[in-house]
Amino acid sequence: MRTGPSLLVLIEMIGIISFAVNAIMAGRAKPLSTMGIFVVAAATALGGGTLRDILLGPSAQPFFWVVHPFYIVAIFVLAVGYCHTALIRAVLDRRDVLLKETAEVIAFASLGTLGAVKAYAILSTTAGEGWLPTLQTWILASFFGAMTVAFGSVIRDVLIGEFPGALKPGVGTIEAAFLGSAAAVGLGIAGVPQPWVLLVGFIAIGALRGAIVYRVHAAKA
Known about the structure:
Mean pLDDT: 89
Shape: globular
């Protein structure tokens, strides 16, 4: 399921920046310092992937943000820019809800898919032959994809003092990430080239998460 690091790094970067933007928008109404905003954004964007890599073991390490430290630098620049640049704040605040929700959908779609693909690539190396080990690896990799994004959103909400939205009944955030991840991993198992696997996962998770966002806002209207 691997064709080279460049595509994976691009997708990971898009997801991390999107999750950082979402966290900044979620925490902007809280009494946070510039470093506080940075900590919330970094923990949100990097926390889920870090937990995934810890659970996957030595094969998944060093951590992705150690290999690519520009992720942390980019989040720091974004946080400082938001806190100290009126133009950036004006642009982000003008589309507060739309930007916040869109950024989260993009983050879920990209990081969820990438997390599932990475988990499957590692887990499949130790899985046995036959349909049962393949099924178990498929489910476990899909779980890792969902966990990558769900844990990030839980960290965000805890740090800003809110009950984690992903854990609320009837929301379906984790389910959407799991199902989209399962679709992507399933195609990978079937031998579909990685770019198509990533595209399908991105579309599946994005569509499911976007439908949830639309449903929630429609219920409030």
